[in-house]
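User: Could you check the structure of this?
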Amino acid sequence: MAASSSRLLAWRQLLKILSNSQGTTLNLNSRCGIHCSGTTHEKLTVDPFGSGDKARKISNAMKAYLETAVKYENQKDNLTADYDLGRRHLANMMGIHHDDFTKEHAKIAVRYLMPSGMFDKRAHPHLLEADEVLPHKKKAQFGRDGRPFHPMFYTTKPNYYQFMHDIVQKIQNLDNKMDESTSLLKKSDPPS
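Assistant: Sure, the predicted structure tokens are below.
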């Protein structure tokens, strides 16, 4: 708890410094970080574990990732709010308290209130949570300086090429061991 409050304090100090120096409006959002509205497009971050007053630039790749992450979180929050509202309405229509209304109750309520004559189950109406609607986002694959973590990041399929690279290394290791064993066998063979 103390670490999160010190981080929050560091963020607030940074916001105060940046608002005074750049003439922009900065808002602190506890879930997504800093939201900037103003004329500058350069975002700055502070190291929460350091002194708290050193700011450094974020690379373009990290800026793009942060922007898409903020959009994704906002969309997920909106879908979650819509789901909760729909679930509350369904609970109210079915006469169940919304805290006791489970996912199974929602399936039964939708089936009861909106019957469908469709044979395909995917065509039936249903109430989905935000996690089931939105695809899961991958974490950032690069550091704050913009350098990728994976050495084969710039290939089209880094995991595939890494796997192939590992296979080749293992085959070469096996060839070396085989060469060593054959050379030892040749040396140990008595002359005939």
